[in-house]
Amino acid sequence: MSDYQPTERTQVKRLPKRGKYDQETVFSILDTAFVCHVGFTVDGQPYVIPTNFGRSGDMLYLHGSAASRMLRQLSEGLPVCVTVTHVDGLVLARSAFHHSVNYRSVVILGRARLVEDPAEKMEALRIFTEHVMKGRWNDVRQPTEQELKATTVLALPLDEVSAKVRTGGPIDDEGDYNLPVWAGVLPLTTSVKSPEPDPQRRNDPPVPEYLRNYTR
Amino acid sequence: MSDYQPTERTQVKRLPKRGKYDQETVFSILDTAFVCHVGFTVDGQPYVIPTNFGRSGDMLYLHGSAASRMLRQLSEGLPVCVTVTHVDGLVLARSAFHHSVNYRSVVILGRARLVEDPAEKMEALRIFTEHVMKGRWNDVRQPTEQELKATTVLALPLDEVSAKVRTGGPIDDEGDYNLPVWAGVLPLTTSVKSPEPDPQRRNDPPVPEYLRNYTR
């Protein structure tokens, strides 16, 4: 896969060896996340809002109610930043100073475009559903024309993009390695608990296979 | 505990019944999170950067290297937005349209202040460490004067704050309840795996109790 060209704005300057610009790293971080954080500025005030997203090729899709202020403002072409972060572990060093976190993050800069073509819009909605749970789209009632109208979809090209990744154990000062302090990593992971059926179920079938075997 | 007064900028307008303005909700969302997403604007471009944080009373602390561009810019009093999000479950409805996510988020708006007093700075570093792992601070080598100088700490008052919370099962259109589609919630949680000791250990004691019994 190809690489992203770091720009003055996306090049990782603090701890540059953590910077990654290859598509494989970027896609794998995006495709396993449930939410992104969308940053935009109104009247000089930045806002950061968590929301769902989907990806198809080099395009990130955001969506929400047509009544959403955020989407309306972004659809006017405001500069936007979309950030996705996974926290993979707590890195416990022998000094407070060298404590750290293992993480993987992606930062996307750009301007979003309102998706108006009904076919692209419907495809984006399929992508959102499949992003959260592969196999779900064909199982559920798909959007009506009215629901499509009530939904705003934005497309943000994956163009000005960088990833940042920290892995591995603590790095202590040489003089601290002899200290009698436990050091290492406490790995963190997102886990799935048992599905909770809707108490209002009437004709629901048993838990489908794509849900029983769900992993992230 | 007291409540936050919603402002024009923090009042939850989309789905207002999800808006929460009480300190107890806000503190519990903040205190169980590992990272926040910090939004700030430079030359008209918003940036959203994940980072650690700590809280003491009505003050949120951010920190990082004195070489960090973000912290330098924020210390000049730029408007900032700090957002913390937990994803608690995937809400699977019978229609694609009514799929949702259970989540808890906090949005803080304001301007940060550079912490210059060495005692407040040291206390903030203690708060960061204890935020990640209660009991850790007294176990590790604490910061030297030089390390303190190499660290920038910012304080952001919890003043203009709101939380947004979705819980519960799917809400389907009345006509969809009879569809033969499994509906319900797939709960998600952050779990801790076994601690991985530093391969470079020399005098490390066994895994300490605060780490063995770690929960979030």
Folded structure, characterized:
2 copies of one chain form a homodimer. Chain A is of the alpha+beta class and 216 residues long. Chain A has one domain (16-171, 181-191, 201-212): Roll (Pnp Oxidase, Chain A). Chain A is built from 5 helices and 12 strands. In chain A, strands 1, 2, 3, 6, 7, 10 and 11 form a 7-stranded antiparallel β-sheet that branches. A 4-stranded antiparallel β-sheet of chain A has the order 4-5-9-8, with helices on both faces. The two termini of chain A are 22 Å apart. The mean pLDDT of chain A is 95. At the A-B interface, strand 2, strand 3, strand 6, strand 7 and helix 3 of A face strand 2, strand 3, strand 6, strand 7 and helix 3 of B.
Helicity range of chain A: 10-25%
Query: Quick one: which chains have the greatest interface?
Result: A-B, 98 and 98 residues
Which CATH C-level class of chain A is it? Mainly Beta
- DSSP strand content of chain A: 35-45%
| H/E topology pattern of chain A | EHEEEEHEEEHHEEEEH
| Overall body shape of chain A | globular
* CATH fold assignment of chain A: Pnp Oxidase, Chain A
Low-confidence segments of chain A: none
The counted number of beta strands of chain A is 12
Largest sheet of chain A: 7 strands, antiparallel
What would CATH call the architecture of chain A? Roll
Secondary structure category of chain A: alpha+beta
Distance between the termini of chain A: 22 Å
Rg on CA atoms of chain A, Å: 21 Å
Oligomer: homodimer
